[in-house]
């Protein structure tokens, strides 16, 4: 079981998928192809420009999207998935299937935990 120790490569994948908006951006780019940030934001819905920009920077940093600037007036930039970004779709779909099957059990467990001794996951209940 050493593949999940502190310095293992598998942790990279878990860290990449840990941010909820990153996976939404990857799925949206996969479904609709390269697009400008404003169009991407509209397609996703419910995401601020700052949060989208942070997600795009994280994904670019991790090599999952490519930023393509164009020498036009006004300036234009779009983003598209790299090969590594596209390859994430299969494990993301598998995680989605896991969530479909087990989300209710996870939520039930969370509710039982919080109801027991009036505790929240991080701190004691305040009243």
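Q: What amino acid sequence fits the structure above?
A:
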């Amino acid at each position: 079981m050493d593949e999940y120790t502190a310095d293992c490569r598998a942790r990279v994948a878990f860290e990449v998928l840990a941010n909820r908006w990153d996976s939404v951006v990857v799925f949206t780019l996969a479904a609709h192809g390269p697009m400008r940030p404003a169009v991407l934001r509209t397609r996703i819905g419910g995401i601020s420009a700052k949060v989208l920009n942070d997600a795009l920077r994280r994904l670019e940093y991790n090599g999952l999207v490519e930023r393509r600037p164009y020498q036009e007036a006004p300036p234009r930039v779009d983003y598209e998935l790299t090969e590594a970004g596209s390859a994430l779709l299969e494990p993301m779909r598998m995680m989605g299937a896991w969530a479909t099957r087990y989300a209710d059990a996870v939520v039930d467990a969370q509710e039982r935990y919080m109801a027991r001794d009036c505790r929240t996951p991080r701190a004691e209940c305040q009243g």
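Q: And what stands out in the fold?
A: The chain has two domains: 2-85, 88-127.
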